[in-house]
Inverse folding.
């Protein structure tokens, strides 16, 4: 491990960033101050001018990142490199994370398809849950992302619940 490289990395980070509103227990974001990628991720130039996403570099300092694994943000702040705010996920988990963020932007209108006002999920949610599960999304993560209990997700993917949705 190259200590100089690591010191250079942390010199570009402000550890007194905003605290995520939806998860205040995580504490402050560590905000990347240098260049950013189009998607908002921090961009860190390592040796030989190779650039890596700053949050991946940060995560790699504390945990081995297996191949084909994404580093995702619990805090929804793409510039954040706080390892406590990051978690590893599959490509499907990453897609799911994007779906959830899109949902936040669309707000309540996204729920219009549901007939039952008590129901937290819509028919399209159910189809998306089954699709994401079929390509490897973890049930526990689906439950977290859709803010429902895990037993509901397992019922949906086993087709014991929401049987009227194909
Ligand atoms: Zn953060």
């Amino acid at each position: 491990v190259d200590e100089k490289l690591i010191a250079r990395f942390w010199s570009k980070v402000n550890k007194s960033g905003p605290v995520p509103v939806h998860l205040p227990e995580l504490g402050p974001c560590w905000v990347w101050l240098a260049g950013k990628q189009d998607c908002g991720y921090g961009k860190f130039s390592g040796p030989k001018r190779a650039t890596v996403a700053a949050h991946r570099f940060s995560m790699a300092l504390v945990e081995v990142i297996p191949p084909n694994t994404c580093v995702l943000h619990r805090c929804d702040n793409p510039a954040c490199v706080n390892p406590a705010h990051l978690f590893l996920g599959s490509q499907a988990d990453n897609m799911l994370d994007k779906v959830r963020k899109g949902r936040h932007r669309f707000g309540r209108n996204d729920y219009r398809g549901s007939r039952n006002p008590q129901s937290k999920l819509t028919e399209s949610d159910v189809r998306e849950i089954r699709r994401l599960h079929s390509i490897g999304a973890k049930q526990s993560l689906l439950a977290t992302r859709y803010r429902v209990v895990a037993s509901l997700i397992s019922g949906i993917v086993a087709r014991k619940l929401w049987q009227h949705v194909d």
Observations:
- The pocket of zinc ion is lined by residues 20, 29, 75, 77, 80, 82, 85 (CB under 6 Å).
- The chain has six helices and six strands.
- The longest strand covers residues 70-73.
